[in-house]
Amino acid sequence: MTSFDAIIIGGGHNGLVAAATLAKAGRKVLVLEAAAEVGGAARTEEFAPGFRVSSIAHVLNRLHPDVVKSLELEKHGLTVTRGDFVPSVALSKDGPPLILHGAYGEVLTGGSASEQTAWKELRAQLLRYAGILKPFLARRPPDLGGMSLLETAALGQNALALKRLGKEDMRDFLRVLLMNVADLLDEQLEDDRLKGLLAFDATLGSHLGPRSPTSLLGLYYRLAGETAGAVGAQIVPTGGMGAVVAAIRAAAGKAGVTIRTATQVARIIVENGRAVGVALDSGEELRGRTIVSAINPATTFLDLVGPREVDTGFVRKVRNIRMKGDAAKLNLALDRPPQFTGADAVSHNGRLVIAPSPDHVERAFNPSKYGEFSTEPVMEITLPSLADPSLAPSGACVLSAVVQYAPYALKEGWDSGKPKFLEAIMAQLESYAPGIGKSVVHAELLTPADIETRYRMPGGHWHHGELQADQMLMSRPVSGWSGYDTPVDGLFLACAGSHPGGGVSGAPGLNAARRIIAMKG
């Protein structure tokens, strides 16, 4: 029986970050991945002959700087500079788009002079307030029941940062913290295109509409991320998101990590309340001093550990994690690049958003509350092959879109609903890019049910749990267990379902590994 210092279950980007960090600290580490390739929902995959695309995640906007630095990802092929930043383009059916350039709208074009002034003020305010939350999202949440001196000092620093805002800003921060995003936007902006873009970004990947309480938190979460040292910046990586995974994997390999793909874990072996190893589907057993689950918390405890090994209160909390996805992924193979109304060549290389107003986003959300898909969906589109021609045959083009709202538990069932939803998406695309339908060589639509099956994500939710106020910070994945530890000694979480949440950040993997190292695990 082979023994390791740490066995990582799941070779997504968080699992690889955790593995590389532990290995660099001198641990003997094994990663077990059920799929044929590592990377999870951040892989680059061929979906039609000659056409490759980022599987689910397709925009890089929050890879944690400590991950880049500590794993020396630049030495392993990942280079990100300000020159790589792509604009956010709020499309319009009948006129020019409104565009946020640089790091999330350092420069705004397409809007009136008064709107540019209003946006400059709102952007500065949003960045100040997101900056207050950023330290909480960057490190292990404090254990309120037994904080160390270091954690107490860190909390004190955060309180000091809040005080430094000044009395008026501090009051306003507390006023808007749990507001819905639509109300805040209505207070300060006029242009529906800009408000629609911000409302979309605040609710992307969540079962929320712009008028849902706390929806503003989603925008703060987004703006707490950074790329190449710039808050709110985003890039479409050359080679797709798989290039990011390849750099992390290379760092893990150099550190001495062993990776086994196409290896399914059947259960976590628990003896006397402690995780001591894993049993594979093949019947093979592997022992480890520390077991790290980089997969969904519900799968970890309900399937691999089993309810008998943890108390019923904890099991109930895990069962109650809300994780039914609302976002679908559309991959189109096109025989030529599309032309979106009013968008120039630079805009086509950016992140194109169809969300014409907060009310439109809200109307798109409403049906999902009742198990129905949106007939006029909102979406985020990239055309990655324009910047990286290797992703498509010569002259052809890849379109990648994240589309809302598509409820996991569709009332009519996805077998009959999927063709209808694809038709609704294509009709929406056609109204913004006339003629696009005639250029489609192949269409792949992944509903949340498909995402669940293909990427082993319960509910098809890429955050592995709703990123809402009651499932964040000290309550992620469940209250009382937010610091990567679990009720099973020797078992730790390092997944999107743990703090701080989803997105390709690597923070859960990095923080979990640092926790294990600090405990001499």
What features would you describe in this structure?
There is one protein chain. With 521 residues, the protein is an alpha/beta fold. The chain has helices at residues 13-24, 65-70, 113-138, 149-164, 167-176, 181-188, 192-203, 216-223, 242-255, 297-305, 312-319, 345-348, 358-365, 384-387, 414-432, 448-455, 507-518, and strands at 3-9, 29-32, 44-48, 51-54, 88-90, 98-101, 107-109, 226-227, 230-231, 258-260, 265-271, 274-280, 285-293, 327-334, 351-354, 378-382, 397-404, 440-446, 491-493. Strand 12 (274-280) and strand 13 form a beta hairpin. Helix 7 (192-203) runs parallel beside helix 13 (358-365). It is globular, with a radius of gyration of 22 Å.
N- and C-termini, Cα separation:
20 Å
The total of beta strands comes to 19
Strand order of the largest sheet: 7-6-5-15-16-17-14-18
Q: Biggest β-sheet: count, sense, barrel?
A: 8 strands, mixed
Count of alpha and pi helical runs? 17
Secondary structure class reads: alpha/beta
The parts where pLDDT drops under 50 for at least 5 residues are none
> Helix proportion of residues, in percent?
25-40%
Q: Tell me the fraction of residues in β-strands, as a range.
A: 15-25%
Whole-number mean pLDDT: 93
Shape: globular
Features:
alpha/beta; 8-stranded mixed β-sheet; 7-stranded mixed β-sheet; 17 helices; 19 strands; globular
Would you spell out the secondary-structure blueprint of this structure?
Elements: E1 3-9, H1 13-24, E2 29-32, E3 44-48, E4 51-54, H2 65-70, E5 88-90, E6 98-101, E7 107-109, H3 113-138, H4 149-164, H5 167-176, H6 181-188, H7 192-203, H8 216-223, E8 226-227, E9 230-231, H9 242-255, E10 258-260, E11 265-271, E12 274-280, E13 285-293, H10 297-305, H11 312-319, E14 327-334, H12 345-348, E15 351-354, H13 358-365, E16 378-382, H14 384-387, E17 397-404, H15 414-432, E18 440-446, H16 448-455, E19 491-493, H17 507-518
Helix pairs in contact: 1-9, 1-17, 3-8, 6-7, 7-8, 7-13
